[in-house]
Amino acid sequence: MFGKKKDKKSEPSVPKSPDVPKPLNDIQKGFKEENEFRNDAKMAYQTPDCKIKGTIKFDGPMRIDGKVDGQIITDSGDLVIGETGTVKAAITTKSAIVEGRVEGKITASDKVALKKKAHLIGDLKAKTLVVEEGVVFVGRCNVKP
User: Which helix (H) or strand (E) holds 107?
Assistant: First the structure.
């Protein structure tokens, strides 16, 4: 009773789940600047710590900030590859904005925009192409309006 302290069994602490950033309007900034999709559209989002190997099929807008190895396919979707995004894939999309690294062929039925820090190693086929100063592009380009 005196002199001895009772052992308090402490409950194991449960680690909090990390806060995952939600795809807000600032993530959608690439398309927002180009006015290519509705503001109320929900965007699929791949976080920077995520790696996908295989085929991604989607409709609507999608942002990739992680790594993808395989294929990306959409008939009516818009694709943004963020600055931290690394893609080794054949990409078929309506329109794309590339800020990160892409190794593979991009086929767009509408528009492709290569931002200033973009690296594209592979062929590109699009209706419209926008290339900012500082882009690294190694491959063939076929642009037909």
Answer: strand 106-108
Q: What is the pLDDT of residue 41?
A: 59
From residue 63, alpha-carbon distances to 14, 43, 94, 143 in Å are 31, 7, 14, 24
Residue with tokens 């309506």: 94
How many CB atoms sit inside 10 A of residue 118's CB?
23
> What is the per-residue pLDDT across 70-86, written as a single tens digit (0 to 9) for each?
999 999 999 999 999 99
Task: Find out whether 124 and 112 touch, Cβ atoms under 8 Å.
Answer: yes
Report the C-alpha gap between 64 and 49 in whole angstroms.
Answer: 11
51 close to 35: Cβ distance less than 8 angstroms: no
Angstrom CA distances, 16 to 10, 13, 19, 20, 49, stand at 17, 9, 9, 12, 17
